[in-house]
Amino acid sequence: MNHNTKVAIVTGGASGLGFATAKKLTENNIRTVIIGRDEVKLKQAVSLLGELCSYRAFDLSDIAGIPGLVSNIVNEFGGPDILVNNAGINQKKPFVEVTDSDFKQIIQTNLTAVFVLSREVVKHMVEAGSGSIVNISSMASQYGIPYVIAYTASKAAIEGMTRAMATELSPQGIRVNCVAPGFIATDMSAKALDNDPNRKQKVLSRTPMGKLGEPNDIAEAIFYLSTEASKYVTGVILPVDGGNSIGF
């Protein structure tokens, strides 16, 4: 193995934004380990991404298993240079119908797992004196969206955590930034928007560019924030949203 090759971990890397990101990283000669729950999808992704891509089938809601997962990756590939915290789950439900366990499950996957995975990876980045972490937020943390209370809480927390991490870790050579995707054309969003024409119309009418983004738009932003091109950028929340967050 070429030890000059950088190592990246991308959670939720088998589809959508995570897959687009893994593709961008591997195309730029970065050894990329994708993490996801669905082994069939992971194997498909690896077959498309080539020999610089490996996978680990793991459910990130298994908090206690995360330190072992990171050790396993470090033992095989070396310490990670890049961590992209992309995995997340969503749920659309009226506020009063969200159960305690619904709320807890989303916080566990979208927030607690990001904290624990980042903590374990940072231990290795501190030793190296360098590293880049990119968290993924959402329009739900830029303004209020109904029916996604737990998801919104998790993403607002991700943005706060990004700033706190950046302030504490940047003196040790570790940059931490966040991308806030707007409405991107993926299988997941297509399902949500195509079944709800009013919501789709609302999304497009408040997006100054008048169209949905593509997964590659997010991958390019993540790539910028995870590489030397952004070596003086830390603690930033970058909306990639066609102007949606500032649209009227």
UniProtKB/TrEMBL annotation:
Q: One short Pfam family name for this protein?
A: adh_short_C2
Q: Which GO terms describe its molecular function?
A: oxidoreductase activity, acting on the CH-OH group of donors, NAD or NADP as acceptor
Q: Which InterPro entries match?
A: NAD(P)-bd_dom_sf, Sc_DH/Rdtase_CS, SDR_fam
Key words, A-Z? Oxidoreductase
Give the matching PROSITE patterns: ADH_SHORT (PS00061)
**What family is reported?**
Belongs to the short-chain dehydrogenases/reductases (SDR) family.
Entry protein name:
SDR family oxidoreductase
